[in-house]
Specification:
heterodimer; A: alpha+beta; Peroxidase, domain 1; 2 domains; four-stranded mixed β-sheet; 8 helices; about 60% helix; B: mainly alpha; 4 helices; rod-shaped
C-alpha cells in the first residue's frame, strides 16, 4: 500500500500548492508556470537524474533549479519546486504538476488536456485544439502545452487516461510494429 | 523199435525148425536156440534198461538242449527284434534330431534375417528423422535469419525515414501537421 500512501501524499502536496497559489492571488499564472517548469525544464532526463540523485545535497539541487528558472519564473513557483526537492519528491515533480493543473481545471469546471507538441503552438491553435478536444470528450477542456521535439511532428493530447496521439513518432512506431 | 524186435523174434521162431533139421545154408548163420533165447533175454534186459532209463535220459537231455537252443534262438530273436526296434528308435531320433537341427538352423536364419531387416529399417527411420530434423532446423534458421534481417532493414529504414521526415519538416509543415490533426479531432468526433 506504499503506492497508495505515496499517491495520497502527492494529492496532499498538490492541494497545498493550490492553497498557496490562491493565497498568492494569481492561480492561473502560478499553475501555468509551475506546470511548464516541471514538465519542460525539469522533465529532461539529465536534470531528472541530477535532482533524484541521493548523493547530491539538497542545497545544491535547489541551487541548480534556482539558476535554471531564475528570474524568468515566479519566485513562488521556484519555492514550491524547491520544497518538493527538500521533501525528497523530486521524481514526482511532473505528477504533482499534472495534479495541480487538474485541480485548477476542476475549480473552473474544466478538464486538463496535457498536450505535448513537437513545436510550440500559437494561441489560435491552442484555442482550436481545446475546442476540438471539448467536442471529442463532451467536457470543457483546458490545454496545457509543452514542447517535445522527440515527437518529430504533430502532437499528443492526454485527458485523464485517454490519449489522442497525432504525433509523427507514433506513426513511425506503428510502422515499426507492423514490419517487425 | 518194439515192432522191429517183434519181427526179429518171429523170424527167429520160423527159422528154428529148419536149423534143427539140417545145419546148412542159412541155418549156419543162425545161432543155437538156447543161445538165441539167452541172447534175446539179455538183449531184452539191456533193451529194457536202455529203453527205461537211457533213452528217457537222452531224450530229456536232448529236449533240454533243444529247449535251451530254442530259448536261445528265441532270446536271439527277441534281441534282434529289440535291436531292430532300438535301431528304428535311434533312426527316428536321429531323423528327428536332424529335422530339429534343420529347423533350428532355419529359424536362426529367419530370425537373423528378421533382425537384419529390423536393424536396417530402424537405421533408415532414424536417418529419415535426422534428415527431417536437420531440414526443419535449416528452414527454421533461415526463417529466423530472414525475419531478423527484415526487422533490421525495417528498423534502419524507419530510422532513416524518421531523420528525413524530421529534417524535412519546416515550420510550415509542422504547423500543417498540427492543424490537420486538430481538424481530424474536431471532425471525426
Amino acid at each position: 500500500m506504499e503506492s497508495t500512501a505515496h499517491s495520497d501524499r502527492l494529492a496532499g502536496y498538490s492541494s497545498a500548492l493550490m492553497d498557496i497559489a490562491r493565497a498568492e492571488g494569481d492561480v492561473d499564472s502560478f499553475v501555468d508556470e509551475f506546470y511548464s517548469a516541471a514538465k519542460t525544464i525539469l522533465g529532461t532526463s539529465e536534470l531528472r537524474e541530477t535532482l533524484t540523485d541521493a548523493r547530491i545535497p539538497v542545497v545544491r539541487k535547489q541551487g541548480i533549479v534556482g539558476d535554471l528558472l531564475g528570474p524568468r519564473v515566479n519566485g513562488v513557483v521556484v519555492a514550491s519546486i524547491n520544497f518538493l526537492i527538500a521533501v525528497g519528491e523530486a521524481r514526482s515533480l511532473e505528477e504533482v504538476a499534472s495534479r495541480v493543473a487538474q485541480l485548477a481545471a476542476e475549480e473552473e469546471g474544466t478538464v486538463v488536456a496535457e498536450v505535448q507538441s513537437a513545436v510550440a503552438l500559437d494561441a489560435g491553435q491552442v484555442a482550436r485544439l481545446e475546442a476540438a478536444l471539448s467536442k471529442a470528450t463532451g467536457k470543457r477542456v483546458q490545454a496545457k502545452v509543452v514542447t517535445d521535439p522527440a515527437l518529430i511532428g504533430g502532437l499528443v493530447a492526454k485527458i485523464g487516461d485517454t490519449v489522442f496521439d497525432g504525433s509523427v513518432k507514433s506513426r513511425f512506431a506503428d510502422v515499426r510494429e507492423q514490419w517487425g | 523199435m518194439l515192432s522191429l524186435m517183434t519181427q526179429a523174434f518171429l523170424l527167429f521162431e520160423e527159422a528154428t525148425p529148419a536149423a534143427e533139421e539140417e545145419t546148412s545154408g542159412v541155418a549156419l548163420l543162425l545161432p543155437d536156440k538156447n543161445e538165441a533165447i539167452a541172447g534175446i533175454i539179455a538183449f531184452a534186459i539191456v533193451f529194457f534198461f536202455i529203453w527205461k532209463w537211457a533213452v528217457p535220459a537222452l531224450n530229456k537231455t536232448l529236449e533240454a538242449r533243444q529247449q535251451a537252443i530254442r530259448s536261445e534262438l528265441e532270446a536271439a530273436e527277441a534281441s534282434k527284434v529289440e535291436a531292430e526296434s532300438l535301431l528304428r528308435d535311434y533312426e527316428d531320433q536321429l531323423s528327428g534330431a536332424k529335422a530339429e537341427a534343420n529347423k533350428i538352423v532355419d529359424d536362426a536364419r529367419a530370425s537373423g534375417e528378421q533382425v537384419k531387416a529390423d536393424v536396417v529399417a530402424r537405421a533408415e527411420t532414424e536417418a529419415d528423422q535426422i534428415k527431417e530434423r536437420a531440414h526443419g532446423e535449416i528452414v527454421g534458421e533461415r526463417e529466423r535469419v530472414a525475419g531478423e534481417l527484415r526487422r533490421q532493414v525495417a528498423d534502419l529504414s524507419i530510422d532513416v525515414a524518421e531523420k528525413v521526415v524530421g529534417s524535412s519538416l519546416d515550420a510550415e509543415g509542422q504547423r500543417e501537421l498540427v492543424d490537420r490533426y486538430i481538424d481530424d479531432l474536431g471532425g471525426v468526433h
